[in-house]
Amino acid sequence: MAQQHIHCSVNNCHYWQNGNKCMANEIVVVSDDFGAQQPDYVDASLAQQIAPTPAENCMQTCCKTFVHKNSSQIKADKVYRTQ
Ligand code: SF4
């Protein structure tokens, strides 16, 4: 099976790599409203416990895994860079 990639242009994220690749081992996408309410530790490792968060269009969704590359919160969840 071909390797799959998440493509992302948010280049100040800790998980971003040249070529607009996301190098996180996993990510979680949620609605903007839900993402804004949740602490940093609520992330991909807890995805199975997150209730559905519907959205009407792409602008209402967000990558909850985003963390600024200079943030002190990089280790707040269990997500890691694969390389
Ligand atoms: S974690 Fe999210 S915001 Fe960061 S590079 Fe991956 S897809 Fe983009």
Give a structural overview.
The protein is mainly beta and 83 residues long. The protein has a domain of 53 residues. The chain is 7% helix and 12% strand. The chain has one helix and four strands; from the N terminus they run E-E-E-H-E. The strands form two sheets. It has a two-stranded antiparallel ribbon. A hairpin with a 3-residue loop joins strand 1 and strand 2. The chain is globular, with a radius of gyration of 13 Å. The mean pLDDT is 95. Bound molecules: iron/sulfur cluster (SF4). The site of iron/sulfur cluster has 12 residues, from loops.
Judged by helices, strands and strand pairing, the structural class is: mainly beta
Order of helices and strands: EEEHE
Query: Roughly how many Å apart are the termini?
Result: 20 Å
Extract low-pLDDT stretches.
none
Strand order, largest beta sheet:
1-2
Strand proportion: 5-15%
Radius of gyration: 13 Å
Let me know the largest β-sheet.
Answer: 2 strands, antiparallel
Overall mean pLDDT score? 95
Helix content: under 10%
Number of helices: 1
